[in-house]
Recover the amino acids of this structure.
């Protein structure tokens, strides 16, 4: 399964007020392994950042003056994320900005390129109700080193979130984790019927076939078949 851990930095909090994306960072994960195939672009937002946003990311208008505009990197970005599940902390925020940028270019919304979006903030709130679930708080909780995060940066935050996400899901695929999170809570009045699992024992014929298969494996491996050795102990 291919996933992209994604983060953006913006000029402000609301694209409806004319705020734009100024940095995009992505980290690729395939089958729960970080591949090293990152995406990182600074973007000229064609406007200044609001003071509050500037204090968060520290990326100045002068620094962005010679950077490409979103329209210049849009196809490259879409090629990178196409077909992947996006994993984003507070996904509604980043998705709204990305959709705004795509709409300005008369492009289709993000959902037409990516099959699903997993919000790690929502997941963290399900796993840790009543606790702080900011990225910094999750780094502390899961012992992910974020000492270099003095200011927000899209690629750095995506890299930290990738480590946090893998720790949060503890070896399970995202689809399995979503199923666990989304399943209905157990009825406290025991309205749900409990199911009893039946234990089926192997027949004599099945046991004989199994032992024959082990004998063939032991013969082919010159007597080193672990299962056969354990059976003799």
């Amino acid at each position: 399964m291919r996933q992209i851990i994604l983060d953006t930095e913006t000029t402000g909090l609301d694209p409806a007020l004319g705020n734009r994306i100024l940095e995009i960072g992505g980290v690729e994960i395939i089958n729960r392994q970080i591949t090293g195939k990152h995406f990182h672009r600074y973007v000229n937002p064609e406007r200044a950042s609001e003071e509050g946003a500037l204090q968060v990311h520290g990326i100045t208008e002068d620094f962005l003056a010679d950077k490409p505009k979103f329209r210049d990197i849009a196809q490259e970005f879409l090629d990178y994320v196409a077909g992947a599940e996006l994993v984003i902390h507070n996904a509604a925020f980043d998705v709204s900005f990305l959709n705004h940028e795509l709409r300005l270019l008369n492009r289709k919304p993000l959902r037409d390129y990516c099959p699903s979006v997993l919000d790690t903030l929502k997941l963290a709130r399900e796993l840790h109700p009543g606790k702080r679930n900011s990225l910094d708080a999750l780094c502390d909780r899961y012992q992910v080193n974020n000492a270099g995060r003095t200011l927000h940066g899209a690629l750095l935050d995506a890299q930290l979130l990738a480590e946090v996400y893998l720790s949060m899901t503890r070896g399970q695929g995202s689809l399995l984790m979503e199923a666990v999170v989304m399943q209905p809570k157990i009825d406290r009045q025991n309205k749900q019927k409990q199911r009893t699992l039946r234990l089926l024992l192997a027949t004599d014929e099945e046991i004989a076939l199994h032992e024959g298969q082990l004998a063939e494996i032991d013969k082919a491996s010159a007597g080193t078949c672990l299962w056969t050795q354990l059976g003799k102990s």
About this structure: The chain has two domains: 2-182, 200-233.
